[in-house]
Write a structure and sequence with these properties.
248 residues, mainly alpha, two-stranded parallel sheet, 12 helices, 2 strands, 2% strand
């Protein structure tokens, strides 16, 4: 024997029972839209439901990430709608903004020559207790060096970033060394360079790093120091390439 199959509607009464219930609840003259009469009983006494006005609560942060692809596209075009878009997603939609998104906004501020505003976004990032990525500082370091505020850039890399548990990367050191070379402070450049060599690991200078520093030192006429770094390059087992011998 086969077990009887259950209908997906078996929880409802059979149609005959439903018809019997309707016939007991309504007369033919009072039937409206097939609904029983009690649905319309004392209709005149029913008062409209009053819902008290509640104050609007501010949007809460959601786990939905910001559309960074769209934001990056706006930044690349230097679109003036970058700030309105950022305000809309953070204030109106309450979308969570991570350190990467803040980095995009910092880059845009530097791009628009708004360094003070870039520092404001950095402060907001730190205030929220988010982790700081060394790439977040790169646009700020470049802007400081281009404005000849080398001492502030040195303070950020040597002092402030380590205190934030944000260890400077190769890009941070390279930006700083180029800025120092432009100011003629090749002594501090070599100190920073050999500090990277001492750290080793991810800070191990590549042929590109050696070539960049040698080129910058040569530009300020410090040929003896440049040749010394060239010799150190050989002793470290880093083979020079065409970039090393070509002035930029």
């Amino acid at each position: 024997m086969h077990a009887p199959s259950l209908s997906p509607f078996c929880c409802f009464p059979p149609s005959s029972s439903l018809s019997q219930f309707q016939s007991q609840s309504e007369s033919p003259s009072d039937s409206r839209h097939g609904l029983p009469l009690f649905c319309y009983a004392n209709r005149s006494k029913i008062e409209p439901l009053r819902i008290p006005n509640r104050p609007k609560s501010p949007p809460s942060k959601t786990n939905v990430p910001c559309d960074t692809d769209y934001l990056n596209a706006l930044v690349r075009k230097s679109d003036p709608s970058v700030f309105p878009f950022f305000n809309r997603i953070t204030q109106t939609e309450g979308i969570f903004v991570d350190h990467y998104t803040y980095g995009i906004m910092i880059k845009y501020c530097v791009q628009m020559n708004q360094l003070n505003l870039a520092f404001s976004f950095l402060g907001r990032l730190l205030k929220e207790g988010q982790r700081v990525d060394p790439r977040t500082f790169s646009p700020i370091l470049q802007a400081l060096c281009s404005e000849n505020r080398i001492d502030e850039a040195v303070s950020i890399v040597i002092d402030k970033m380590p205190k934030m548990e944000c260890i400077p990367d190769m890009v941070s050191y390279t930006i700083l060394m180029k800025g120092l070379c432009s100011k003629g402070n090749t002594g501090l450049v070599l100190q920073l360079f050999f500090k990277m060599v001492k750290h080793g690991g991810e800070y191990e200078p590549s042929v590109i790093t050696y070539s960049t520093v040698i080129d910058e030192i040569c530009k300020v006429g410090e040929l003896t120091k440049a040749f010394g770094l060239y010799s150190h390059m050989y002793s470290a087992g880093v083979i020079p390439d065409s970039v090393t011998y070509t002035p930029h």
